[in-house]
Specification:
This protein has helices at 2-10, 15-50, 57-106, 109-113, 117-159, 161-208, 210-215, 219-271, 277-318, 379-386, 409-414, 430-434, 443-452, 456-461, 479-493, 509-523, 535-538, 558-562, 567-574, 581-589; strands at 340-347, 356-363, 368-372, 394-399, 402-403, 416-419, 497-501, 527-531, 543-548, 551-556. It is α/β, with parallel strands linked by helices. The protein has a domain at 2-318: Up-down Bundle (ABC transporter transmembrane region fold). Helix 2 packs antiparallel against helix 3, helix 2 packs parallel to helix 5 (117-159) and helix 5 runs antiparallel to helix 6.
């Protein structure tokens, strides 16, 4: 019940649907009782006529017409109510989905560091669909059943209090037996959900990286992993189902015994002349009517249990508080020069050992600064901290004298362009991907960005030009083409500060030259932080910052550091030495082949 209250609280704007459903349920509950009473009057009239009393046939006709009208009304109103319930369900589904997506967009990068994409999407489908189905079931069946049962009990009590008492006792007994099975069912369901998340997560990863799977000939391995998880789900479901039906058998046996006693009392009282044949018929009809909510509640309770177990994942995400938030009254970042300062920056993932210690350096306006160091020294982390993907453990980062912790995240990221090592493109057209930075950009601006990124010529040769579909993550384009599209997107964004995460490391020589030319145009007039390994990327920078052991080991111009014995000099030496086994091993530490 707690989960239902949460769902209603999350969907307050659907109150019109809830009110309409309640209205129709009340009317339908009354109409459901009308037919048994009309049947009572018909039976009493027929019995009276056979006993020699004067009863007009027109009286029976009117009762039959009223029964027909009540039946028509129930059919019409129940279908209207069903339509409203269906629309409420789809609106609720959309509402919960949009809020889930909105919450995911609010959560920091650290959340995604610990999650699998497939699990996130599996939760969306499982949790929200189950919740929507439950609310639809409740609106179309349970509420009407519940209200009808209460009114039925009141009417039965007016004629036979022992029968009403037995019915009143059976409801909590039935619910109590159901509660006994609930904990075991939900515990098993959590295990099933965990396996479903892992299985679906691996499924999505395998399909998304199908080229890797096929090239390594791991089709059978991936299929075997998926089968093991599905077999585990089947095994757990078997145990869950057996337990559920065991309890359901006890529920139904209890009902059979109680209703045997109820019918015995009704016929005993009728046999002793306590009420007429019409009242007997009325009571039997009402008792049968009271059975439907009980027998139907097995399905409803099953839906309720599923929603309770499945909605935990949804609400666990929705109740997460973003670790990175804007300060109250956070200002908009105003960038005039683009000077960036790292002052004594400390950082640790998940409050563990620091990966960065007292990092300090300055990027002057319009300068190009390269970070160099072996793999795992924290170069990408330094860049991520400027974007405030994570919050600092100590120190501060300033842009034109403004602490990034005191400005809004949106304004901060609007002023920073990023070109990642792996181009991050969306399915759709080339035009849509370049315009992602500025959807309302003119055709002229798009073409100018493409030309500056050395992408225009290859785009025009494609069958549909800028309207060419590139496939998921740009699979139809080469690495160099994808990277140039990403650069065109950054050029169109026109941010005063730029982060380049080794944007040429995975390209061949020809593609690297084309991309490097585009990068030079992109960097012109912008303050640029470059995560670099290759000499071609580093050669033209103004400042090199060497990182070792999470600390700044050296700072200077390429010419200055080349004369020393530090990280840059080592890197310079390694890339000009013959390709011996020892050289290759050292290059690997710098993520270079």
């Amino acid at each position: 019940m707690k989960e239902i209250i949460k769902i209603v609280r999350y969907s307050k704007q659907l109150w019109r649907y809830y009110v309409a459903i309640t209205f129709f349920v009340v009317i339908l509950a009354g109409l459901q009782l009308a037919v048994p009473f009309l049947t009572k009057y018909l039976v009493d009239a027929v019995v009276a006529k056979t006993s020699g009393q004067a009863v007009q046939f027109s009286y029976l006709i009117w009762l039959l017409v009223l029964t027909l009208i009540a039946g028509f009304a129930v059919t019409l109103l129940s279908n209207i109510n069903g339509h409203i319930g269906d629309m409420m369900s789809v609106r609720l589904n959309s509402l919960l989905s949009k809020r889930y997506f909105e919450q995911l967009m609010r959560l920091p990068i650290s959340y995604y560091d610990n999650e699998i994409t497939g699990k996130i999407t599996a939760r969306l489908e499982r949790s929200i669909n189950t919740i929507s189905t439950l609310m639809q079931t409740l609106s179309n069946n349970f509420i009407q059943f519940f209200l009808t049962t209460i009114v039925t009990l009141v009417v039965i009590a007016l004629y036979s209090w022992p029968v009403a008492l037995l019915l009143i006792v059976i409801f909590p007994t039935y619910i109590w037996i159901t509660h006994l099975s609930s904990k075991d069912w939900q515990k098993r369901q959590m295990g099933i959900n965990a396996d479903i998340d892992v299985a679906n997560g691996r499924f999505i990863e395998s399909i998304g990286q199908v080229r890797v799977v096929k090239s390594f000939v791991t089709d059978l391995r991936e299929l075997s992993f998926y089968k093991r998880k599905r077999d585990s789900i089947e095994k757990q479901t078997k145990g869950q189902s057996l337990k559920w039906h065991e309890y359901d058998a006890w529920r139904r046996i209890t009902l059979n015994i109680v209703f045997f006693l109820i019918y015995g009392i009704i016929f005993w009282q009728a046999y002793n002349g306590q009420y007429s044949i019409g009242v007997l018929t009325l009571l039997i009809t009402l008792v049968n009517q009271a059975q439907f909510p009980l027998f139907g509640s097995s399905f409803i309770i099953d839906a309720l249990q599923r929603a309770t177990a499945d909605s935990r994942d949804y609400f666990s995400v929705m109740e997460l508080e973003p670790a990175i938030t804007d300060q109250a009254g956070a200002r908009e970042l105003k960038v005039k020069q683009g000077k960036v300062e790292y002052r004594g920056v400390d950082f640790a993932y998940d409050n563990k050992k620091n990966v960065l210690n007292k990092i300090s350096f300055t990027m002057e306006s319009g300068s190009k600064v390269a970070l160099v160091g072996e793999s795992g020294e924290g170069k990408s982390t330094i860049a991520n901290l400027m974007l405030r993907f994570y919050d600092l453990n100590g120190g501060e980062i300033l842009i034109d004298g403004q602490s990034i912790a005191k400005v809004s995240q949106a304004s901060l990221r609007r002023n920073i362009g990023v070109v990642f090592q792996e181009p991050q493109l969306f399915s759709g057209t080339i035009r849509e991907n370049i315009a992602y930075a500025r959807p309302n950009a003119s055709r002229k601006d798009l073409e100018s960005a493409a030309k500056a990124a050395n992408a225009y010529d290859f785009i025009k040769k494609l069958p549909d030009g800028f309207d060419t579909q590139i496939g998921e993550r740009g699979v139809k384009l080469s690495g160099g083409q994808k990277q140039r599209i990403a650069i065109a997107r950054a050029i169109l964004k026109d941010a005063p500060i730029l982060v380049l995460d080794e944007a040429t490391s995975s390209l061949d020589s020809k593609a690297e030259r084309e991309v490097q030319e585009a990068l030079e145009r992109l960097m012109h007039g912008r303050t640029t932080l470059i995560i670099a390994h290759r000499l071609s990327t580093i050669a033209g920078v103004d400042l090199v910052v060497g990182i070792r052991g999470g600390k700044v080991a050296e700072i200077g111009t390429p010419a200055e550091l080349a004369k020393g014995n530090g990280i840059y000099a080592e890197l310079l030496k390694l890339q000009t030495m013959p390709a011996t086994k020892e050289t290759k091993e050292k290059l690997k530490k710098f993520e270079l082949a």
